[in-house]
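README, section 4: Worked example with a bound small molecule

Sections 1 through 3 covered apo chains. Here we extend the same pipeline to holo records, where the ligand is supplied as SMILES alongside the sequence. The molecule in this example is glutathione. Nothing else about the input changes; the structure line simply encodes the ligand pose together with the chain.
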Amino acid sequence: MKLYGYWRSSAAYRVRIALNLKGLCAEQLSVHLVRNGGEQHQAAFKALNPQELVPALVVTDDNDERAELVLSQSLAIIEYLDEAFGGEALLPGDIEQRALVRAMAMGIACEIHPLNNLRVLQYLTGTLKLDDAAKNDWYRHWVEQGFGALEQQLQQYSGRYCFGDQVSLVDICLVPQVYNAKRFNIDLSPYPNICRINDECLILPAFIDAAPENQPDAQ
Ligand SMILES: N[C@@H](CCC(=O)N[C@@H](CS)C(=O)NCC(=O)O)C(=O)O
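The generated complex, written as structure tokens:
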């Protein structure tokens, strides 16, 4: 398998954590999101993922060199890895619990992250000519709204981790989002459960090895 990602990409960070939890190896290929206007916009990468976003996972068939599965969207990739390979389950077996886990994970991946993605921030400052202070207010607003909702859900569903005592898709989404929030100096003190669970995850080797600073393309 080949994982196209970038050390600071939180969506690629999610997939790295999932690969580690499943005990899987993937060759990592760096797509620099800023250099030369962003390598995600270059033809070679666009051919792989027309969405011009990392991560992209390329899965090859050992029995057929020409057969390649190219997957985009971190949640789809992670669910594929979970279903295709053994090892630690990333979603609960129970159908209702699985839906709850997906809902909490999507609260991060679909409601916070896309609004604060690089291309959105570039649009705010480039096309709409907002200054850095306004951009940071925008960023903080969506994190606070999303983390406020998640903190409430964690009061109901968390144990040691976001959903009970088992690491799940929610933790995989949470840790990169907290990493990003810290980069933008968001005050996390109103979210004790988020902070506690983030700390719990960050002592696990799967999360440590996936951390942005531990990637070969980290600058
Ligand atoms: N929903 C997508 C989001 C992917 C995404 O937004 N990737 C970011 C990095 S975290 C990216 O490639 N940004 C490039 C850009 O904004 O131009 C997923 O979960 O994979």
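What to look for in the output: The chain has nine helices and four strands. The first strand starts at residue 2 and ends at 5.

Section 5 describes how to batch many such records.
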